[in-house]
Design goal:
This protein has helices at residues 2-23, 27-32, 43-57, 68-76, 89-97, 134-138, 152-164, 167-170, 180-188, 199-204, 237-243, 249-254, and strands at residues 34-39, 61-66, 83-85, 107-111, 114-119, 143-146, 174-177, 194-198, 208-213, 223-228, 258-263. By secondary structure, the chain is an alpha/beta fold. The chain folds into 2 domains: 2-111 and 223-263, Periplasmic binding protein-like II (D-Maltodextrin-Binding Protein, domain 2, 3-Layer(aba) Sandwich); 114-218, D-Maltodextrin-Binding Protein, domain 2 (3-Layer(aba) Sandwich), CATH 3.40.190.10. α4 packs parallel to α5.
Length: 267
């Protein structure tokens, strides 16, 4: 119970920190920078895209990374984001349902895959098929995963484990993290023998290795939608257009994403 209360307090404090970091930025920076709220799993790719954007234009984007759920709630609370990139459709739909994005700008930008990881020099490959015994593979340790009720990577992970019939045997052995990058660190630091993250997260951390890939049919498609917010400044659209451009495509692909580039009509 104490652990639960501490986790809840940490989530609240972290959510507040995201808002404070953006809201307390110097006025000049807010005037000049495009403010992007992006899922934590996008950090490497968007940092590289931002650097390329700066080389081309002399301008930069101020990017805040966190769980999509945290970012969506901050937008709903009035945080001044110009662009929102979610790691799933649900949180973009949540923000859209409140009229907080420009629906004409919304599109499905990227795809990803869900993988099981272990510390770099540990763990055997695991066939992720129905009946897989993950509980035995944990050897008394915990399974690192993002929050399974709110964070997209955690929701995808739980869905996959349920589909494979493995959730019941490991649900009391999970170590839930605030976002997928935090789950990645649990494994990279050797604090958990196994973890569930995106393929791109595993590629970004040399301290882990992929020991199994979840079949696509075990979880909903992993889609990263992007949209301008309702209050986006006009100069935000050029950065969004850059993310959709042929120049940005190889940046995302180098990080392991698939580029979808599919507009979304309606909601």
């Amino acid at each position: 119970m104490a652990t639960h209360r501490m986790s809840k307090l940490f989530r609240t404090a972290f959510a507040g920190l995201v808002a404070v970091m953006v809201l307390s930025a110097p006025a000049g920076a807010q005037d000049q920078d495009v403010v992007v709220f992006a899922a934590a799993s996008l950090k490497n790719a968007l940092d590289e895209a931002n650097a390329a954007w700066q080389r081309d234009t002399g301008r930069t984007a101020a990017i805040s990374y966190a769980g999509s759920n945290v970012l969506a709630k901050q937008i709903e609370a009035g945080a001044p984001a110009d662009i929102f990139v979610s790691a799933d459709l649900d949180w973009m739909d949540e923000v859209a349902s409140k009229g907080l994005i420009d629906p004409a700008s919304r599109m499905n930008l990227l795809g990803n895959a869900l993988v099981l990881i272990a510390p770099r020099d540990e763990g055997a490959d695991i066939a992720l098929e129905p009946g897989v015994d993950l509980a035995a593979a944990l050897k008394g340790g915990r399974l690192a995963i993002a929050n399974v009720t709110a964070v997209p990577a955690g929701k995808y992970g739980k869905a996959a484990l349920e589909k494979l019939g493995a959730w019941e045997s490991v649900k009391d052995r999970v170590a839930q993290a605030e976002n997928v990058r935090a789950a990645l660190l649990f494994v990279s630091r050797g604090e958990a023998p196994l973890g569930i993250v995106y393929r791109t997260d595993a590629a970004a951390d040399p301290g882990v290795r992929i020991v199994g890939t979840f079949p696509e049919g075990t979880h909903p498609p992993i889609v990263y939608p992007v949209a301008l917010t309702r209050t986006a400044r006009p100069d935000a659209k050029p950065f969004l257009d850059f993310l959709r451009s042929p120049k940005a495509r190889p940046i995302f692909e180098r990080q392991g994403f698939s580029v979808l580039d599919r507009p979304v009509s309606g909601s």
